[in-house]
Amino acid sequence: MAHPVLDDIELPLVQEITTQDRRVLSEQKPPGMSGSLIQNMGRRLLRIVVSGVATGPNALATAEKLDEKFKAAKPVPFTADIDADSNLDLA
Prior knowledge:
The protein is an alpha+beta fold. Helix content is 20%, strand content 35%. It has helices spanning 59-72, 81-84, and strands at 5-6, 9-10, 14-20, 23-28, 37-43, 47-52, 78-79. The strands form three sheets. The chain has a three-stranded antiparallel sheet with strand order 2-1-7. It has a two-stranded antiparallel sheet with strand order 3-6. The longest helix has 14 residues, at 59-72.
């Protein structure tokens, strides 16, 4: 099994990969109606959360590269075996 890769950083000790996604719902209370209507406004962007550790002589450099990418706040490519078997749009 290949290790997950975030942009140009290989992540050999990933312990967990989870997704966070939420729909946006809007509640409308029409005048004269005892209840309310729920409108589905679509979903927010899918967020993939990767948890793990960095070890060895390059651990600090790996953590610094990850921190730089986090602070840049720009989308980066992510590949892992798990995404091949799931129904995620990673574009």
